[in-house]
Specification:
The chain has 364 residues and is an alpha/beta fold. The chain is built from 14 helices and 14 strands. The strands form three sheets. It has a seven-stranded mixed beta sheet with strand order 3-2-4-5-7-6-12, sandwiched between helices. Strands 9-11-10-13-14 form a five-stranded mixed beta sheet, with helices on both faces.
């Protein structure tokens, strides 16, 4: 087992791993069918099923990345897929992100539909040249003659005691780059159904999966459908303050909204889902109803996605605001290893509640 794999999997647990009627005979009208029942699953299993379905539906789809084959993926997402689809479609790669992301780009240009898995977001920086200067730019550099239909998945976020090397939240950095779409599934339903829409996109899509969500369990409706990646979701309606978030901090934000409700504050929670392009209509529509906004972003505060959202609200809904836009971000330090320090460094329920209280008082 490589040192990289050992570090990235340090906190994984054991559980990671109707006949036609006879002619001429009158028959009663059939009873209406019961709606399909929801199934209990995990975030990890939902992603795996999305990959499996995509590969069954389209022979051009394949998965490649470090340890995705025999090992079943660093976080267990691809467990069992090698046995079902074989090594040509579940392809283990060398430890060179630049090389295998570049190979994925070439495959996409050649007509394939690659899903490239990068273990953790910090390793994606080794492929930044391929992502930014090739995948994101090629359509524009060729006047629209070439598209790069590649999906790149990676694990992001802190909270798992993986210290400064594997706890980054860099999705806001990637949201700065034109030519790519950035998505962050925060729910089991989105984890299951975002991939189909991403694979249908003719241009690169980066999927950021928060590592703290893989074991999250919940119900998955049987009648799901591909997710509209252009639209944010209002996860909790409210009238007093808008809490804007995405990915791994959605659960924290919903818990904060529940705590605020006990104080008589009715918080609306907006799950961005897609970080580039942002759904300005949903964000601004919510702020115009509540007249207050707090952005919850696990990235560092300086130059963050939260800063961009705050600027857009201020530019386009300034006179609707009854308070400055608040922000709850990670402390501007490398993520600590010690559990109590790590939890103190990342957004918390108490931190979100405090920011919402300040907004209610009209304070920054």
């Amino acid at each position: 087992m490589t040192a990289r794999r050992r570090a990235a999997t340090a906190t994984m647990t054991a559980n990671d791993r109707a006949a036609a009627p006879e002619v001429g005979v009158s028959t009663p009208a059939p009873a209406p069918e019961a709606p399909p029942e929801a199934a209990t699953t995990t975030y990890r299993e939902a992603i795996r099923e999305a990959i499996r379905e995509a590969m069954l539906a389209d022979d051009r789809v394949f998965l490649m990345g470090e340890d995705v084959g025999a090992y079943g993926g660093c976080f267990g997402v691809s467990t069992g897929l090698l046995e079902q689809f074989g090594p040509e479609r579940i392809r283990d790669t060398p430890l060179s992100e630049s090389a295998f992301v570049g190979a994925g780009i070439g495959a996409a240009l050649g007509g394939m539909r690659p899903i490239v898995e990068i273990m953790t977001v910090n390793f994606s920086l080794l492929a930044l040249d391929q992502i930014m200067n090739t995948a994101a730019a090629l359509q524009h550099m060729t006047g629209g003659q070439f598209h790069v239909p590649i999906v790149i998945r990676m694990t992001t976020g802190a909270g798992r005691q993986l210290a400064a090397q594997h706890s980054h939240s860099l999705e806001g950095w990637y949201a700065h780059i034109p030519g790519i779409r950035i998505v962050a599934p925060a729910t089991i339903v989105d984890a299951r159904w975002m991939l189909a829409t991403a694979l249908a996109d003719p241009d690169p899509v980066l999927v950021f999966e928060h590592g703290g969500l893989y074991n999250a369990a919940g119900e998955l409706p049987a009648d799901g459908a591909p997710v509209d990646l252009d639209t944010a979701a209002i996860r909790r309606p409210g009238a007093d303050v808008t809490l804007i978030t995405y990915g791994g901090t959605l659960t924290t934000t919903l818990e904060a909204a529940a705590a605020l409700a006990e104080e008589g504050v009715d918080a609306e929670v907006v799950d961005l889902r897609t970080l580039r392009p942002l759904d300005d209509a949903t964000i601004l529509g919510s702020v115009r109803r509540t007249h207050r906004a707090v952005v919850v972003d696990e990235g560092w505060r300086s130059g963050s996605l939260s800063a961009e959202i705050s600027a857009r609200i201020t530019e386009r809904a300034f006179y609707e605001l009854d308070a400055p836009v608040g922000r709850v971000c990670s402390a501007e330090v490398p993520t600590p290893y010690a559990r109590h320090l790590e939890l103190a460094a990342i957004p918390s329920v108490d931190g979100v509640v405090s920011a919402a209280r300040r907004a209610m008082r009209g304070e920054a």
